């Protein structure tokens, strides 16, 4: 996968014997024709021209997406691949975006690619939305799969293999981020500032994702607060207007549903050290990733 795969990366993938490479652009085809020695299975990523109801930065299937080929360009790529002696075109790929809260865009995207011919594989990407807030109601996994399979049966060959690539919906609710309250400031709003923020959770500033939070040992109720991070950006507001029960300096604040794209997008902005990861089950806890140290931050500097 990727819209800008380098020679090195494709060489690494081919050498490692990856099953399938997803072609995003014509340069991918040129590169693979040079790199592949035997035979390599590929899919072509199609822009279905569907804009799902999600944050624009989370949308990848609309007409002007940087990912994939338009339907007309895809026809050209498909013809080229069909004539290739090294690249075996197994089928089509699409990925509409992320945090998609209804099944309709998935249905439309399958309809959109059906006109490209019959293939043995269709990879329909990921994208299923997740319940971050009390108000969110994403489709259930059953509703999502029923919609996908019913549409695939209607528009795609009955023997085709249908793949999906779920990410967020599998892991988001597996994690809770724990922060410590550093300071509470009462001005025009009341700010509860914590020892983290946009370095460990970019979902808010990148996608405007809304989360819920609670004081870890006083769950529910309370006044409305602005839960803010510690970074030098006014946009580093983790949750604006969240009810917290009598928060105090030193309290632990729990922010649930942080298992997707928080750790993977964590960064060192303002010299933030990335947090540890602790697996918990049935009262047992085990650290699986240690907290980053200041030495880690300096470890790549040269004399
Ligand atoms: C090509 C592709 N497939 C699947 C996914 C997973 O999407 P989600 O986490 O929304 O299920 C992504 C996410 O970036 C992606 O780029």
Distance N to C terminus: 36 Å
Distinct ligands, ions and cofactors found in the model: pyridoxal-5'-phosphate
- SSE string: HEHEHEHEHEHEEHEEEEEEH
Question: What is the CATH fold-level name of the largest domain?
Answer: TIM Barrel
Instruction: Give the overall silhouette.
Output: globular
Domain count: the total is: 2
Radius of gyration: 23 Å
Helix fraction, binned, reads 10-25%
Give me the side-by-side strand order of the main sheet: 8-11-6-7-9-10
CATH class value of the largest domain: Alpha Beta
Largest sheet: 6 strands, mixed
How confident is the prediction overall: mean pLDDT? 97
> What's the CATH H-level homologous superfamily of the largest domain?
Alanine racemase
Number of helices: 8
Structural commentary:
With 303 residues, the protein is of the alpha/beta class. The chain folds into two domains: 7-168, TIM Barrel, CATH 3.20.20.10; 175-269, Lyase, Ornithine Decarboxylase, Chain A, domain 1 (Beta Barrel). Helices cover 23% and strands 23% of the residues. It is built from eight helices and 13 strands. It has helices spanning 7-16, 26-35, 71-82, 104-113, 141-155, 168-171, 203-207, 294-298; strands at 20-23, 40-45, 87-93, 121-123, 161-163, 176-186, 190-194, 214-215, 223-228, 237-244, 252-256, 277-281, 284-289. The strands form three sheets. The chain has a six-stranded mixed sheet with strand order 8-11-6-7-9-10, with no helix packed on it. Strand 6 and strand 7 form a beta hairpin. Helix 4 runs parallel beside helix 5.
